[in-house]
Design goal:
Helix content is about 45%, strand content about 20%. By secondary structure, it is an alpha/beta fold. It folds into three domains: about 1-30; about 40-155 and about 295-375, Response regulator (Rossmann fold, 3-Layer(aba) Sandwich), CATH 3.40.50; about 160-290, Rossmann fold (3-Layer(aba) Sandwich).
Length: about 400
């Protein structure tokens, strides 16, 4: 009888605990659904480095999104709803970027503009995929950034930059002999380099020297420059970030080597590098979809507002981020989603709408997207003259 009673008591306790658990879970779900149904603003997050060596990129992205959000809110918001915006620093570190994502998710983020740099973007993209949250990166250019179907990008991918650079150098007859220095330890640099080499086959120029460095040897480039100079390279392709490029330009001048230097979007920001002698960058060219000296109204007004708020000319990263905020507006309105929809439903609607919108932005007169998240737009090249970016002929 005692054993029988013990079994009955155990079953009763288990049933009670299960019922309580079901009630608590139902209550939690109900609370979440109620909160969603009462949502009156879209919560948009941003992630990028605002401290550390890549801070010029993240700060530009943060600033430009804020300008766009302020404009959008003043003109009715996203689909009639105001936008709340919060940006988190990741110091260009993948682990910290994931932490930043989790923090923004706890805040209630529904859409992400980010991350700013490629390696963190790849890590965060796996998290947004698991949550089915829509993500658009302004400047994560590595191929794997958009491997998941919920992630789109505004910038060109690394291979696209490599191909476009080769085509531009060829079509504008910029060189007869090309030398290359690239960072063999960096996914961004190697991605551009590999496509550039592939695309250079059969072009009007010859690649006469091909030199590399790694993260452990990125302060002294005299060996690489000496080989390029000996090979008579009249153009040097530098597919890496501006901080190392500044050292290359300085060391080239010291050894009396003055080819045309040509970079990609990672070069943008060199003019804002602290204590950098801008005269070293005179004649430097870089491939970009944005030119701050363009005379169309959209560019003029953006540059004016950015300078007013931050005292400097915006770079390509800022322009791409600004365009991201407006791309979300177009897609949200096309999909007719609201803040009351779940994160997953917003994602499904927006990613479907992205392939059927066309945007007139700072980085393209007619920007559209493929289903794999890649943008369609035309690259430009700028040249540095008198310490400023000028659209190349």
């Amino acid at each position: 009888m005692k054993k029988f009673l013990s079994v009955i008591l155990a079953l009763t306790l288990a049933t009670t605990l299960f019922a309580c658990g079901q009630k608590q879970a139902s209550s939690t779900t109900a609370d979440a659904n109620a909160a969603a149904s009462e949502a009156t603003t879209f919560k948009v997050g941003g992630i990028g480095p605002t401290t550390g060596g890549a801070a010029v990129y993240g700060q530009a992205v943060k600033n430009a999104i804020q300008i766009a959000v302020d404009e959008i809110n003043a003109n009715g918001g996203y689909n009639g709803y105001q936008v709340e915006y919060r940006f988190a620093d990741d110091e260009h570190d993948a682990e910290k970027s994931v932490n930043a994502y989790n923090s923004l998710k706890d805040w209630g983020m529904q859409l992400l503009i980010g991350t700013t740099t490629s390696s963190p973007c790849i890590s965060v993209a796996d998290k947004t995929y698991a949550d089915n949250m829509f993500q658009i990166t302004p400047s994560g250019s590595a191929v794997d950034c958009t491997a998941n179907p919920n992630v789109f990008r505004m910038c060109f991918s690394d291979p696209d930059q490599g191909a476009a650079s080769a085509q531009y150098i060829d079509s504008h007859n910029l060189a007869k002999k090309v030398g290359i220095i690239y960072d063999a330890s960096d996914v961004y640099s190697t991605g551009i380099y590999e496509k550039f080499i592939q695309e250079s086959a059969g072009k009007s120029y010859e690649v006469v020297a091909d030199e590399q460095f790694t993260a452990d040897s990125k302060t002294d480039f005299t060996t690489q420059l000496t080989k390029l100079k000996a090979a008579n390279a009249d153009l040097v392709f530098l597919p890496f970030y501006y901080s190392e490029a500044a050292l290359v330009l300085n060391q080239a001048k010291q050894m009396g080597y003055a080819p045309t230097f040509f970079g990609c979007d990672g070069m943008d920001g060199i003019l804002t590098l602290e204590n950098f002698d801008k005269s070293l960058a005179e004649g430097l060219m870089l491939l970009t979809p944005f030119s701050a000296d363009a005379t169309d109204d959209l560019t003029v007004n953006f540059v004016k507002e950015y300078q007013k708020r931050h005292g400097e000319v915006p770079n390509q990263f800022a322009a791409d981020a600004y365009d991201c905020a407006y791309a979300l507006k177009l897609a949200i309105e096309k999909a007719n989603v609201t803040p009351a929809n779940s994160v997953s439903d917003i994602c499904n609607g927006v990613k479907s709408a992205m392939t059927s919108i066309t945007q007139k932005g700072l980085t393209g007169d007619s920007i559209s997207w493929k289903s794999n998240g890649e943008p369609n737009k035309t690259p430009k090249a700028v040249v540095i003259k008198d310490g400023a970016y000028v659209l190349a002929n």
